[in-house]
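[step 3/7] inverse_fold.run input=structure_tokens len=348
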């Protein structure tokens, strides 16, 4: 199998040339480098590339995600002999030996997305260790899939995924985590192998913007929080209104039960529509999603009522405060279960 190794490069150093030259004698790997608008001052680096290297260029910087898409599209249409792609970073964080191991693992898992997971041992910058830990847990909650290194740039996938990966949202670093989310949602197996953790000069040469790019990476969680807040407001207002209207005719305990169910049915319907389309981008058929969501909602509703009853009736906590405590407690559980059970296809 002929494999193309794709290396997006923005203002690279000599490490790019060192990496590319390691593949000169590897006959079944072809190298594609994308100059992502580095500018004329870096022409001395790109001019050292051998003629056997395919060099693609962006006139201006468009982001790592767009650079990867440019390469995938080019290989799909112009390098038909290549049935797989390996992506690697240009800053020297990926060892040649790890890239070859990743390629060999992919050959045994050709329908999977194979990634190289850094172990984050040794002298790792605190911001990198913390950032990956946080992203790993958010990703696990959103997708139901555990991946050690969600931000690794070392990945391998086959031609069967070229078209779908081109359609994934994201132009910058968020594209890489969106790729993982897509694989999890579509039931594509993610195979992870351990690779060395390498940082140079406290990772000072990274072009990752910790505010802008982190916001985009966590966008799925932010959208879920927003949709949950909208549903909470609907549920909260309806609960108070219904409870006030029904307490006299139904009594304190029965009115709480009826109000909780009525408010939840309306708010859950809104929440389902938003999460299905805007948060998890589910492509599963509507009926199975509705049935799974309904089953989860009934479970959450039961937990919601029992906790409300405990706080409001047994412990005499004011209803408004009890409602806030319960919703916050169930938020993370609901996010995890929706990503894992409701809006994700089974593995193929």
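[step 3/7] decode complete -> sequence:
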């Amino acid at each position: 199998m002929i494999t193309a190794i794709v290396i997006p490069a923005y203002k690279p150093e000599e490490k790019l040339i060192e990496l590319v030259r390691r593949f000169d004698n590897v006959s079944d790997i072809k190298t594609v480098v994308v100059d992502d608008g580095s500018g004329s001052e870096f022409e001395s680096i790109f001019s050292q590339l051998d003629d056997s290297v395919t060099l693609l260029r962006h006139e201006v910087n468009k982001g790592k995600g767009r650079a990867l898409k440019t390469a995938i599209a080019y290989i799909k249409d112009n390098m038909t002999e290549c049935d797989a792609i390996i992506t690697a970073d240009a800053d020297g964080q990926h060892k040649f030996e790890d890239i070859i191991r990743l390629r060999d693992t992919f050959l045994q898992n050709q329908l999977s997305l194979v990634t190289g997971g850094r172990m984050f041992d040794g002298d790792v910058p605190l911001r990198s260790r913390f950032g990956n830990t946080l992203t790993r847990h958010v990703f696990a909650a959103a997708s139901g899939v555990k991946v050690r290194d969600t931000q690794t740039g070392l990945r391998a996938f086959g031609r069967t995924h070229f078209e779908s990966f081109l359609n994934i949202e994201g132009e910058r670093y968020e594209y890489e985590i969106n790729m993982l989310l897509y694989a999890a949602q579509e039931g594509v197996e993610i195979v992870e192998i351990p690779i060395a953790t390498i940082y140079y000069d406290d990772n000072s040469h990274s072009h990752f913007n910790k505010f802008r790019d982190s916001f985009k990476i966590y966008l799925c969680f932010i959208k879920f929080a927003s949709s949950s807040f909208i549903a909470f407001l609907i549920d909260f207002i309806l609960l108070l209104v219904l409870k006030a209207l029904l307490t006299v005719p139904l009594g304190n305990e029965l009115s709480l039960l009826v109000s909780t169910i009525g408010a939840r049915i309306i708010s859950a319907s809104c929440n389902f529509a938003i999460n299905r389309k805007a948060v998890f981008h589910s492509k599963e058929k509507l009926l199975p999603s509705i049935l799974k969501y309904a089953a989860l909602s009934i479970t959450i509703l039961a937990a919601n009522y029992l906790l409300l009853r405990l706080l409001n009736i047994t412990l005499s906590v004011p209803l408004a405060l009890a409602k806030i405590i319960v919703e916050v407690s169930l938020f993370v559980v609901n996010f995890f279960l929706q990503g894992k059970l409701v809006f994700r296809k089974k593995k193929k």
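[step 4/7] annotate
Residues 221-342 form one domain.
Residues 82 and 149 are 27 Å apart (CA to CA).
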